[in-house]
Amino acid sequence: MLDDQWFSEAQTASGTAFSLKITRKLHEEQSEFQFLEIYETEQFGNLMVIDGCTMVSTRDNFFYHEMMSHPVLYTHPNPKKVWIIGGGDCGTLREVLKHPGIEQAVQIDIDERVTRLAEIYFPELCESNNDPRAELKFIDGIKWVKDAAPNSVDIIIVDSTDPVGPAEGLFSADFYKDCFNCLTENGIVVQQSESALLHMKILKEMRAEMQAGGFTHLQTVFFPQCIYPSGWWSATMASKKALSSFREQDALNKGFDTVYYNSDIHKASLAMPEFFKKAFA
Ligand code: SAM
C-alpha cells in the first residue's frame, strides 16, 4: 500500500507497479497456505489480493475468466469433463458451465478459504457452484492430477497463482507429465502464462516444461487484463496432437452471454506478436 488510500502491487523485477484507489479494507487473514486480503475499491468494485498480488476484481475479471475457458473449450472437439486446478474464486467454473455439453466440472483449489471469501465478496462468480455438474474439492492440484486414472478428463484448466509457494509445482514437467497421462486422446491443458512483456523467462520455461511433460503442440493466446502486471496477459494451451483452429461455428452460435469473448476475439487472441514468434522460432 502506498498509503491508506491506495492498494499498490509493486513488481520489483520489472520496475513496475499497479495501483487501485481503495475506499476500505474489507477483510484480511492468513490462511493455512497464503495471506488473503479483500479491498473495496473506488472504481473497480471488490479486489482480492493473495500474498500481495492482485487476483480478481469485480470490474475486470471477465477478461481472464472468459479467456481461460472459452478458447480451450471451443478448441477441443467435444469436451465433456473439465478439471480446474486452482480457480478458487469460481469465475472460471462459472464460464465452463455455460457450455451445455459439459457433463462434469471439478474445481480443485488447495485453499478453501479463497472460495469461502469469494462467496461473500464475489457472489456473482459463485453463481454456478450449485450446478449439479459442479464439484468443489479442496486439495493440492498437483496430488489430484498425480493420483488420477489415465484418460479420465478432456480439459485441464490451470487457473493458478504465480509460480511461487503452493503453485510452484504447477509449472513443472512432472506436473505436465501427470496431466498428459490423465488427459484423453484429444485432451488439452491450458494454463495462465503471465505477461509476455514482463515475464518472458517464466513463459519460456513453462512452455519448455510442457514439452518435457510430453505435449507436442503449444498455442499461447493473448488478452488484456488491466489489474495484472503490464495489463497484457496470456494463457498457453498444450495438446497431445495438433490443435484444430477451433470450432468457429459453435463459437458464433454460442447461445450464452459473455462480456469479452466471441469468435472474432478468439481468432485475434491467436495472432502472435513478432517478438513472440522470434522467441519461439
Ligand atoms: N487469476 C489469478 C491470477 O492469475 O493471478 C489466479 C486466481 S485463483 C484465486 C488462484 C488459485 O490458485 C488460488 O485460489 C490458490 O489457492 C490456488 N492454488 C495455488 N496453488 C495451488 C495448488 N498447488 N493446487 C490447487 N490450487 C492452488
UniProtKB/TrEMBL annotation:
Ligand binding (spermidine): H65, D89, D159, S160, T161, D162
Ranges where the PABS domain occurs: 4-240
GO BP annotations, alphabetical order: spermidine biosynthetic process
Keywords: Polyamine biosynthesis, Spermidine biosynthesis, Transferase
Alphabetical list of InterPro entries matching this protein: PABS, SAM-dependent_MTases_sf, Spermi_synthase, Spermidine_synt_N, Spermidine_synt_N_sf
Subunit structure: Homodimer or homotetramer.
Function recorded in the entry: Catalyzes the irreversible transfer of a propylamine group from the amino donor S-adenosylmethioninamine (decarboxy-AdoMet) to putrescine (1,4-diaminobutane) to yield spermidine.
Name of the protein: Polyamine aminopropyltransferase
Organism per entry: Methylomonas methanica (strain DSM 25384 / MC09)
